[in-house]
Amino acid sequence: MEEDLKQTLTSAAVPAAAPDVSGTEPAETAADIRLYSPLVLAYIGDAVYEVYVRNHLIRTGGNQPVEKLHKKATCYVKAAAQAAAAEHLHPQWTEEEQDIYRRGRNAKSHTLPKNADPGDYRRATGFEAVMGWLSLKGENDRLQQLMEAAVTYLEEENKR
Hints:
Elements: H1 2-11, H2 30-34, H3 38-61, H4 66-77, H5 79-89, H6 95-106, H7 118-137, H8 140-159
Helix pairs in contact: 3-4, 3-6, 3-7, 5-7, 5-8, 6-7, 7-8
């Protein structure tokens, strides 16, 4: 009986590597991802950028009260800030990233923000769509580069 169990365990298919459950591996091809609604891309991009900002604040500011961290985070993730970051980054974007940005910016959202200018909100949606698209494609180096550039730019702007 013990031998049967040993045989079953050793002959079972064992993956060569553990599956990536972090959400950073591309789930589909770039062509498949381009078919996603720009609002779906913005939905995931919003979350990816928010987590990046929170990690940045903790790495650079250490252990602070959550209320203070939240207040600081809003300076980076509010629509006006994302719109400003998008305008700053736009010249650095590839043609494909610019296309995704336009699709996100021009998407017809059925909700309007209470505390944001509609133009800023649309540009922020474009910015989030680019972040989401890069994340779903698994282009983590490029995603990191753009988010870092956005945060650096916003920090410099906030010092003025």
